[in-house]
Design goal:
300 residues, alpha/beta, Spore Coat Polysaccharide Biosynthesis Protein SpsA, Chain A, nine-stranded mixed β-sheet
């Protein structure tokens, strides 16, 4: 019997067959082999090896092959549209469950969860044991999720537009979370559902740090200017972009280009802006700052 009804597992990957294989084997060992699996291959250099790993580890898995590298935002949308399931577990190729907790309760239906768009999981870094969210934080509404550690209500997420596909990667999760919030949906954090992040980089999959720094500088601005009144979003996004750029002493030209691109795209994408009200925006910023406090002063 499938332990997670109405659900599929979605994993985007690129150039990391060994890491993907390890994750799939760990998921099967937890008894999830009957859950439909969908994998998006973001134009790997050796697609045949990716296909072999997926089908050997998970007979019946569906593999969607991209012929041009498009990034995580595009791949996740492609899987959400293709899977045909009401609920979707999104994992990165280097993540797997350690404890399913009460996950199955969230895949049985919507009847008693009006407005719930996603369930964010706790994540532990394998190399250090560090938790992404402090262990003291209980189950509660939260303002964000990690793209590789979340259960989505597929219809509600796609109805909000899913991920912005030109985004590629970098702040794509908080950007989607902001749009869900503006639509009246909410996210639930469940610390009992635990995934492990086996963060390793193979030589072929090594990150393009110039692109990485450009996209984070650009998207840090767009995250706020596309979703908030300009007088709130522009200074907030610009400050975020500058803080992020100062974090690593490298690629200053790429970061400067990203900052200017974020400012320019704010206006070239003006028709895509659906900003919150000022009150919503201020409440949203406050929620992000305070939600992990034992007694937050104000939550939506």
């Amino acid at each position: 019997m499938t332990p997670l009804p109405n659900c599929a597992i979605l994993i985007p990957t690129r150039n990391r067959p060994e890491i993907l294989q390890d994750s799939l084997e760990r998921l099967r060992a937890l008894g999830l082999e009957h859950v439909p699996l969908w994998v998006y291959d973001d134009a790997s250099d050796d697609p045949a090896t990716i296909a072999h790993v997926v089908h050997a580890a998970w007979p019946g898995a569906e593999l969607v092959r991209g012929t041009t590298q498009r990034g995580q935002a595009f791949g996740r949308n492609a899987l959400l549209r293709a899977c045909g399931a009401p609920f979707a577990i999104m994992l990165d190729d280097d993540q797997y469950f350690l404890d399913l907790g009460n996950l199955s309760a969230y895949t049985r239906g919507r009847e008693d969860r009006e407005g719930l768009a996603g369930v964010a999981f706790q994540c532990r870094v394998k190399s250090s044991g560090r938790l992404d969210i402090a262990a003291r934080v209980p189950a509660k509404k939260c303002p964000f999720f990690m793209g590789g550690a979340v259960l989505f209500d597929v219809e509600r997420v796609l109805g909000t537009g899913g991920f912005r596909e030109y985004w590629r990667y970098g702040y794509e999760e908080p950007e989607l979370a902001a749009r869900l919030y503006a639509r009246g949906y909410y996210l639930q954090y469940e610390p009992r559902i635990l995934v492990e992040h086996n963060h390793l980089m193979t030589e072929k999959a090594r990150r393009d740090e110039t692109e990485y720094d450009y996209l984070y500088a650009r998207n840090a601005i767009l995250l706020d200017t596309l979703n908030m009144p300009l007088w709130v979003g522009l200074p907030t996004g610009l400050a975020r972009s500058i803080r992020r750029s100062l974090h690593f002493n490298r690629n200053w030209r790429a970061k400067a280009r990203g900052t200017f691109a974020g400012l320019a795209m704010t206006f070239s994408l003006w028709q895509e802006r659906h900003p919150m009200s000022t009150r919503q925006a201020l409440d949203w910023l406050r929620f992000n700052r305070t939600w992990q406090e034992p007694e937050a002063r104000r939550t939506p």
